[in-house]
Design goal:
260 residues, mainly alpha, 12 helices, globular
Length: 260
């Protein structure tokens, strides 16, 4: 029977949030810094890339607020990759629960994205807190920032639907997705700008959903939005991926336990 995503879980809302918080506690159990690691991970990457690419840009006639530009891209990309890596293994890692209780398979990828949304709040807060340190004062357009954040979470869930099903059938996807994520990092506008590229890289960007979201985030933070279509295009792109991902998940979810 065809159904809509997320509505299947309306009767399990409390359990979903409890399971998400339990996973959050488990992930950082035994660490001294706890939740601080959520913000520190992208910061470590930022520091390394900032030192390298800022030096290059200064020699080539760099630009103001490159640090904020770079950190914004890293933050959005990190939300996506952390969420999809967790979503990828969500069914296989919870095999015992699936065998013990009758619950919608969708519960587990959705839980990982809820966890990613908590991480997103922390990481975006770190980004905003660092803006004054680099002398950056965002303009009024920053009130639109929740739009790309919501889009990256929807994209993460759509991709997680697909990856979690593939992982049930072929565990190789875990290694393949690591490679794909590394490729996506370099073909997304994290340390370069769309207006600086052309040719094949620009073509890739036009069909790169996470790259589109990162570009939209940059435009919102730096008040460079020129038309509503710059929001509409990535929104439609992400929604298509989300519903296709759910359709694939729904088609194969009943056979999950057989394959696990």
């Amino acid at each position: 029977m065809v159904s809509l995503p997320l509505l299947n879980l309306k009767n399990h809302t409390s359990l979903l949030f409890y399971f998400t918080l339990l996973n959050l506690k488990t992930r950082f159990k035994g660490t001294y810094l706890g939740l601080l690691w959520i913000g520190l991970e992208p910061l470590f990457i930022f520091v390394i890339l900032f030192v390298v690419f800022n030096t290059i840009r200064i020699r080539g006639g760099g630009e103001e607020f490159f640090a904020i530009y770079l950190l914004t891209g890293i933050t959005m990309f990190h939300i996506f990759t952390r969420g999809t890596m967790s979503g990828l293994g969500s069914l296989r890692q919870n095999r015992n629960i699936l065998e013990s209780i009758n619950i919608k398979r969708e519960f587990f990828p959705v839980s990982t994205v809820l966890l990613a949304s908590i991480s997103a709040v922390i990481e975006i807060s770190v980004l905003v807190a660092l803006m004054p340190i680099f002398g950056f004062v965002p303009e009024l357009s920053v009130i639109l920032l929740p739009i790309p954040v919501i889009l990256v979470l929807i994209l993460t869930l759509g991709v997680s639907y697909i990856l979690s099903i593939i992982n049930v059938y072929a565990r190789d996807i875990q290694l393949i997705w690591i490679v794909i994520s590394q490729i996506l990092f370099f073909v997304s506008p994290i340390f370069w700008k769309v207006k600086e590229i052309d040719g094949f890289l620009l073509e890739i960007h036009n069909y790169n959903p996470i790259g589109q979201i990162i570009d939209l985030t940059h435009k919102i933070i730096f008040n460079e939005l020129e038309s509503i279509t710059e929001i509409i295009y990535p929104t439609i792109f992400v929604l298509v991926i989300f519903f296709v991902g759910f359709a694939i998940f729904q088609k194969f979810e009943e056979r999950v336990l057989e394959k696990l």
